[in-house]
Write a structure and sequence with these properties.
The chain has 208 residues and is mainly alpha-helical. The chain folds into 2 domains: 30 residues, no CATH class; 175 residues. It has 6 helices and 2 strands. Helix 4 crosses helix 6. The longest helix is centred in the N-terminal third of the chain and has 25 residues. It is globular, with a radius of gyration of 19 Å. 27% of the residues are buried.
Length: 208
């Protein structure tokens, strides 16, 4: 028991220090400022492509919700990384960055585009909740509701997962899962989030 606790503790330390967990341990990779600038632009371009595709298929009933949400999750992850590459000097290895970073980006965006109108706390709270939901779409996001038979994935928009139905293990595909976020595409909060995303994309692609 003590040995397992020690191993779990060391794993947390390694992850906190930026080491990879799978296979061999890989140290943080330092990058030049010019490469970080290029990465910021290219991540922004890819984010724009993802959100463009989402808006093309958003209202198509024949397209599963998980496919639409996959483009949303990828677009937000990439634009956050584009934003981060403007202030870091190493490769960003994590996938789940939206919940932590995008609310800060949104607050800055709101202050710049609405200088005479402070953001209403309920709106910002809803924005934070949406960012949380977007991060939860990513397979790499640890889920708080792991079953007693945890697998690498839980409800996400990309890979099937195992869940517990009574005492029986079953498999669920994202194609058959009802994502709450898919019903919020026309909500005021989601629309504001997309406006902010577009604005950050423009900035990342135009500024050095």
């Amino acid at each position: 028991m003590i040995g397992k606790l020690a191993i779990d503790f060391l794993r947390k330390v390694f992850r906190a220090l930026g080491f990879k967990r799978k296979g061999k341990i890989v140290k943080r990779e330092k990058l030049s400022s010019s490469i970080c600038t290029l990465l910021a632009v290219e991540f922004a371009r890819q984010a724009e492509s993802d959100i463009d595709m989402f808006e093309i298929i958003r209202d198509q009933a024949s397209v599963p919700g998980c496919q639409k949400l996959h483009f949303v999750q990828m677009a937000f992850e990439k634009i956050v990384k584009a934003h981060m590459y403007k202030s870091v000097d190493e490769r960003i290895l994590v996938h789940t960055v939206v919940e932590k970073h995008f609310p800060i980006i949104f607050r800055t965006y709101w202050a710049r585009t609405n200088p005479r109108t402070p953001i209403h706390p309920p709106l910002f709270h809803n924005i934070e909740q949406l960012c949380h939901k977007i991060d939860m779409l990513c397979p790499a996001k640890p889920k708080p509701y792991k079953s007693q038979f945890p697998t690498e994935y839980d409800p996400n928009c990309e890979y099937p997962w195992i869940f517990l139905n009574g005492s029986v293990q079953e498999v669920k595909s994202p194609l058959d899962y009802l994502f709450i976020l898919a019903a919020m595409f026309r909500s005021p909060e989601f629309i504001e989030l997309i406006k902010c995303l577009r604005d950050v994309i423009r900035q990342a692609m135009s500024s050095p």
